[in-house]
């Protein structure tokens, strides 16, 4: 059934959803998608904005505004059709495509990322694993053989790599990012405990596990009245252990 032939009682999308979705909204779309997926798995057909917002951890007014950027407004008294809204969000964030990913740095964290089974169901295919350590080259992880870092540029070209994941020690992160960009990768997820620079036109996201732990330690300290924050040395040691 085409969108134009949908019954009037179901949520419809505007003919031309506005472009330029705010970054804050983009960051929340995966939360909505995860909540909708859970609802669909439970057999729920429709959901109110209040219920969906609660599942995603946001307020309902913010959710309605976010979804309006997709041209989805729901139906008064009915709410949102779960499957249709899932399709809208999946299409908007590009998960209808197959995104080839290379993980650079196969230490403890790289191993964990390579073995995570949730990527494939969300449109991400781990296509290659790369490491500069000769002792790791040839090792099989999650059904893939680790290849040497010298092959990185060729791997990007041969496999059509869309996204690079950096899980190296801090000292190697900038060089790896530079090589990924030079090879044509324009989306990078950096897990290395280092600040890296990329040129305009390249999207960079950073996941700093030690910083997130320190934020949690701060909140624990506030709750317990104890000095639980990590020292700089402890944070560095933790980051090194996480990144292998």
UniProtKB/TrEMBL annotation:
**DNA-binding segment(s):** 31-70
Q: Which PANTHER family match?
A: REDOX-SENSING TRANSCRIPTIONAL REPRESSOR REX, REDOX-SENSING TRANSCRIPTIONAL REPRESSOR REX 1
Which family is this protein grouped under? Belongs to the transcriptional regulatory Rex family.
**What is known about its subunit structure?**
Homodimer.
* Origin species: Jiangella rhizosphaerae
Q: Which UniProt keywords apply?
A: Cytoplasm, DNA-binding, NAD, Repressor, Transcription, Transcription regulation
Is Ribosomal protein among this UniProt entry's keywords? no
Q: Where is the CoA-binding domain?
A: 94-195
For bias type Low complexity, the affected ranges are 1-18
The entry's function note states:
Modulates transcription in response to changes in cellular NADH/NAD(+) redox state.
Sorted alphabetically, which SUPFAM superfamilies does this protein's record hold?
Answer: NAD(P)-binding Rossmann-fold domains (SSF51735), Winged helix' DNA-binding domain (SSF46785)
Task: Point out the gene that encodes the protein.
Answer: rex
Its main subcellular localisation, reduced to a broad class, is cytoplasm
* NCBIfam families attached to this UniProt entry: PRK05472.1-3, PRK05472.2-1, PRK05472.2-2, PRK05472.2-3, PRK05472.2-4, PRK05472.2-5
One example of a Gene Ontology biological process annotation: negative regulation of DNA-templated transcription
Q: Please give the residue ranges the record annotates as the region Disordered.
A: 1-20
* Residues bound to NAD(+): 105-110
- Provide the protein's localization: Cytoplasm
Pfam families for the chain: CoA_binding, Put_DNA-bind_N
A GO-annotated cellular component: cytoplasm
- The protein depicted here goes by the name Redox-sensing transcriptional repressor Rex
- Which one of the record's GO molecular function terms can you name? DNA-binding transcription factor activity
Q: Which InterPro entries match?
A: CoA-bd (IPR003781), NAD(P)-bd_dom_sf (IPR036291), Rex_actinobacterial-type (IPR058236), Rex_DNA-bd_C_dom (IPR009718), Tscrpt_rep_Rex (IPR022876), WH-like_DNA-bd_sf (IPR036388), WH_DNA-bd_sf (IPR036390)
């Amino acid at each position: 059934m085409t969108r134009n032939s949908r019954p009037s009682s179901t949520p419809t999308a505007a003919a031309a959803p506005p472009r330029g979705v705010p970054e804050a909204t983009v960051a929340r779309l995966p939360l909505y998608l995860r909540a909708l997926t859970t609802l669909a798995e439970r057999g729920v057909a429709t959901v109110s904005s209040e219920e969906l917002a609660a599942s995603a951890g946001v307020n309902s007014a913010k959710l309605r505004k976010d979804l309006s950027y997709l041209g989805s407004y729901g139906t008064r008294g009915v709410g949102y059709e779960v499957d249709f809204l899932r399709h809208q969000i999946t299409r908007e964030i590009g998960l209808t495509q197959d995104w080839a990913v290379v993980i650079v740095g196969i230490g403890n964290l790289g191993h964990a990322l390579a073995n995570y089974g949730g990527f494939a169901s969300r449109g991400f295919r781990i296509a290659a694993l790369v490491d500069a350590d000769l002792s790791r080259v040839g090792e099989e992880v999650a059904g893939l053989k680790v290849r040497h870092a010298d092959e990185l540029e060729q791997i990007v070209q041969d496999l059509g790599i869309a996204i690079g994941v950096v899980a190296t020690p801090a000292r190697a992160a900038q060089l790896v990012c530079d090589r990924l960009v030079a090879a044509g990768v324009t989306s990078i997820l950096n897990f290395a405990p280092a600040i890296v620079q990329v040129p305009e036109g390249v999207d960079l996201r950073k996941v700093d596990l030690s910083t997130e732990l320190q934020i949690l330690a701060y909140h624990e300290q506030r709750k317990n009245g104890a000095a639980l924050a990590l020292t700089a040395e402890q944070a560095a040691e933790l980051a090194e252990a996480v990144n292998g």
